[in-house]
Write a structure and sequence with these properties.
The longest helix has 11 residues, at about 55-65. A hairpin with a 2-residue loop joins β6 (about 90-95) and β7 (about 100-105). This protein is elongated. The protein has a four-stranded antiparallel β-sheet, with no helix packed on it. A four-stranded antiparallel β-sheet has the order 5-6-7-8, with no helix packed on it. The chain is mainly beta. It has one helix at about 55-65; strands spanning about 1-10, 15-20, 25-35, 40-45, 75-80, 90-95, 100-105, 110-120. The chain is built from one helix and eight strands; from the N terminus they run ββββαββββ.
Length: about 120
């Protein structure tokens, strides 16, 4: 479910950026950025905003409560920090037939803040 992203400088072929990502739609873990000489210049934790409700809790919720398969191509999990409220959000979206379901979880509290059912647009 997770992969490693690597980016290199064209001129020197040295590592520029390395980090982990969830195959579906978000970066996670510690990301490291290097200069062209290979020296570490920045390091940031993509998981920091989600520490109160981390991936492990989302995974358990999706598998046990929603009974969804994380490898199903119609199941999407995304996370972001709201531009307006500055709250970190987990967004889980899945499709069953023509129905599309979306749940948003406040990553500070673990509480569901929004639940929507819609239909696929044709």
């Amino acid at each position: 479910m997770f992969g490693t992203y690597k980016e290199y400088y064209n001129r020197t072929a040295t590592l520029k950026l390395v980090g982990k990502y969830y195959y579906n739609d978000f970066d996670c873990g510690i990301w490291k950025e290097y200069d062209e000489n290979g020296y570490l210049i920045d390091e940031y934790n993509q998981d920091a905003p989600y520490k109160n409700y981390p991936w492990e809790k989302v995974e358990k919720f999706v598998k046990e409560e929603l009974k969804l398969d994380l490898f199903d191509k119609k199941v999407f999990i995304h996370r972001y920090v709201s531009k307006h409220s500055k709250i970190p959000i987990w967004r889980i979206r899945w499709q069953v037939g023509v129905k599309v379901y979306t749940i948003k979880i406040n990553a500070n509290t673990g509480k569901i803040i929004n639940q929507v059912e819609g239909e696929v647009e044709k």
